[in-house]
């Protein structure tokens, strides 16, 4: 059973977003995603300052099994990437909502909450997938 | 829903993540693939390999038949229990499957072939056996486990009847013996010491429980793949198939050329490939940049045709990415690999990468 923090919003692509006080948005993959991917061994990061299109390439996470694209959930520029994942990508397995964060973005047009999933809605999505 | 081995309920009990593998519901891992990998390199792990196909052969002319069917020569097997790794080739010298053949007696042999190739293997064996009067008996009622790791035999020994235990512990590499209802062989697919044990399905759960109680870790197909990749052991369907000869898959050592008059399937084609100095070579790659090599990625060597990664991944033992690849002839020691559009540096290295817990290449 995945634990799902109530203060985050989610995407159907198994990413989470946290709106920070300074207007930036922190993004990572959900506990459900890291469980499905298995032990993570590498993450390919965007450059700081890079501009991302919504739905465009943002990062690639590689597990022992396979490589998976992490797409940008919003149009934004990259404020920071989690450098610690370079040496310790397993942080995404161990603490996906905390130390395993992937990037921090500055939204180009703000974040429209209605386009994302509430914790309950995301929970329903993964429950349905687990069937 | 796929086929289930006699140990399926044990996998669920141990928290396995189940995946389809060649029509079988098999454990991918039981929580952490990396941890299972390290357990085999440092201690002991157990794999359910009951999905593999066991075929017993019997007949007056069975030896003559196998000397025709297989590229390695069963004439090398003289003592009961001795085993041989070999390819089974088509007329073009392509690999139909790789397998282990056990010698049980002059009239009795056992083949253990891959699960995903079961149907075509059996059809081919039956067709080739027609004129030899060999009795072919698939043993689907048997289960099979692999106990692997530096402490595997020591921890698994309690599962062998006491009257056979000493003899089982004394087995040499690539030999096996019957131990009551079990067949125990010192073989495996991890690059570590250990046993593969064939048993009646009804005994499998109890033996599994005893191994886990002794401290052997359950390991899934995920760890099996990273372990065999580090040991540079070929995976059928990835590293070779019917379009590739063993000479271009790093398996030239398994072809018995002598005696010259042994006319095994594929020999004529293989002789031609052997004479061609331009045939592709099968090599190990070590990624020098960060990232992960994966199968089907393009290998680029200056002034030569592109090659291809046949198996790639992350090596938990080295903390680096490694691969097996088929590349153009030559003696070049460096190459680049196209990893999703980026050209990453790799070193061509002599395999295996890891054997018996030790890294065997320079990092």
Provide the fold topology.
The complex is a heterodimer of chains A (about 130) and B (about 375).
Chain A: E1 9-10, E2 15-19, E3 25-29, H1 31-37, E4 40-44, E5 51-52, E6 57-63, E7 67-71, E8 76-81, H2 84-87, H3 91-94, E9 103-107, H4 119-130
Antiparallel strand pairs in A: 1-2, 2-3, 3-9, 4-6, 5-8, 6-7, 8-9
Chain B: H1 8-13, E1 17-21, E2 24-29, H2 33-42, E3 45-48, E4 53-58, H3 62-69, E5 83-89, E6 95-105, E7 108-113, H4 118-129, E8 135-138, E9 142-148, H5 152-156, H6 162-169, E10 176-179, E11 182-185, E12 194-200, H7 201-213, E13 217-218, H8 221-230, H9 267-275, E14 281-287, E15 298-300, E16 307-315, E17 320-327, E18 334-339, E19 342-349, E20 354-355, E21 358-359
Parallel strand pairs in B: 3-13
Antiparallel strand pairs in B: 1-2, 3-9, 4-7, 4-8, 5-6, 6-7, 9-12, 10-11, 11-12, 14-17, 14-19, 15-16, 15-18, 16-17, 18-19, 20-21
Helix pairs in contact in B: 2-8
Name the descriptors:
heterodimer, A: 131 residues, alpha+beta, OB fold (Dihydrolipoamide Acetyltransferase, E2P), 6-stranded antiparallel β-sheet, 3-stranded antiparallel β-sheet, 4 helices, 9 strands, 21% helix, B: 363 residues, 6-stranded mixed β-sheet, 9 helices, 21 strands
Q: Your description of this structure?
A:
The complex is a heterodimer of chains A (about 130) and B (about 375). With about 130 residues, chain A is of the alpha+beta class. Chain A has four helices and nine strands, in the order E-E-E-H-E-E-E-E-E-H-H-E-H. In chain A, about 20% of the residues lie in helices and about 30% in strands. In chain A, the strands form two sheets. Chain A has a six-stranded antiparallel β-sheet with strand order 1-2-3-9-8-5. A three-stranded antiparallel β-sheet of chain A has the order 4-6-7. In chain A, a hairpin with a 4-residue loop joins strand 1 (about 10) and strand 2. The longest helix of chain A is centred in the C-terminal third of the chain and has 12 residues, at about 120-130. The two termini of chain A are about 15 Å apart. The mean pLDDT of chain A is about 95. With about 375 residues, chain B is an alpha+beta fold. Chain B is about 20% helix and about 35% strand. Chain B is built from nine helices and 21 strands. Chain B has helices spanning about 10-15, 35-40, 60-70, 120-130, 150-155, 160-170, 200-215, 220-230, 265-275, and strands at about 15-20, 25-30, 45-50, 55-60, 85-90, 95-105, 110-115, 135-140, 140-150, 175-180, 180-185, 195-200, 215-220, 280-285, 300, 305-315, 320-325, 335-340, 340-350, 355, 360. A six-stranded mixed β-sheet of chain B has the order 10-11-12-9-3-13. In chain B, strand 6 (about 95-105) and strand 7 (about 110-115) form a beta hairpin. In chain B, helix 2 packs across helix 8. The N and C termini of chain B lie far apart (about 45 Å). Chains A and B meet through strand 4 of A and loops of B.
């Amino acid at each position: 059973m995945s634990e799902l923090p109530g203060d985050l919003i989610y995407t159907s692509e198994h990413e989470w977003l946290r709106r920070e006080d300074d207007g930036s948005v922190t993004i990572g993959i959900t506990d459900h995603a890291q469980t499905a991917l298995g032990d993570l061994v590498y993450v390919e990061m965007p450059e700081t300052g890079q501009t991302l299109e919504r739905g465009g390439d943002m990062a690639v996470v590689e597990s022992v099994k396979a490589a998976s694209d992490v797409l940008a959930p919003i149009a934004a520029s990259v404020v920071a990437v989690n450098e610690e994942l370079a040496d310790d990508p397993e942080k995404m397995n161990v603490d996906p909502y905390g130390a395993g964060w992937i990037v921090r973005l500055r939204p180009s047009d703000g974040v429209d909450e209605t386009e994302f999933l509430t914790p309950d809605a995301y929970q329903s999505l993964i429950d349905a997938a687990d069937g | 829903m796929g086929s289930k081995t006699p140990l399926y309920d044990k996998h669920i009990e141990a928290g396995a993540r189940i995946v389809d593998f060649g029509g079988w519901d098999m454990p991918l891992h039981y929580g952490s693939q990396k941890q299972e990998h390290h357990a085999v390199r440092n201690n002991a792990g157990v794999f359910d390999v009951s999905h593999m196909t066991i075929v017993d052969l019997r007949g007056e002319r069975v030896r003559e038949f196998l000397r025709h069917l297989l590229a390695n020569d069963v004439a090398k097997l003289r003592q009961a229990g001795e085993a041989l790794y070999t390819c089974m080739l088509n007329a073009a010298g392509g690999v139909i499957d790789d397998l282990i053949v056990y010698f049980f007696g002059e009239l009795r042999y056992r083949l253990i072939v891959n699960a995903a190739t079961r149907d075509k293997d059996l059809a081919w064996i039956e067709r080739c056996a027609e004129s030899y009067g060999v009795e072919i008996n698939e043993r689907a009622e048997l289960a099979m486990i692999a106990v692997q790791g530096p402490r595997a035999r020591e921890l698994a020994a309690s599962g062998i009847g006491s009257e056979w235990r000493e003899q089982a512990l004394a087995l040499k590499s690539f030999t096996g013996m019957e131990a009551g209802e079990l067949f125990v062989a010192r073989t495996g697919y991890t690059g570590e010491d250990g046993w593969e044990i064939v048993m009646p399905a009804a005994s499998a759960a109890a033996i599994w429980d005893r191994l886990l109680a002794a401290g052997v870790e359950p390991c899934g197909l995920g760890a099996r793949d990273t372990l065999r990749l580090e040991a540079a052991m070929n995976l059928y369907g990835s590293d070779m198939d019917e379009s590739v000869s063993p000479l271009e898959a790093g398996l030239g050592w398994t072809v018995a050329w002598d005696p010259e008059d042994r006319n095994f399937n594929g020999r004529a084609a293989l002789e031609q490939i052997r004479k061609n100095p331009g045939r592709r070579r099968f090599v190990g790659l070590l990624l020098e940049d960060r990232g992960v090599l994966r199968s089907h990625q393009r290998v680029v060597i200056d002034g030569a045709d592109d090659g291809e990664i046949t198996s790639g991944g992350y090596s938990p033992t080295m903390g680096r990415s490694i691969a097996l690849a088929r590349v153009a002839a030559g003696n070049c020691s460096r190459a680049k690999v196209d990893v999703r559009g980026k050209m990453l540096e790799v070193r061509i290295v002599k395999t295996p990468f890891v054997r018996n817990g030790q890294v065997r290449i320079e990092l």
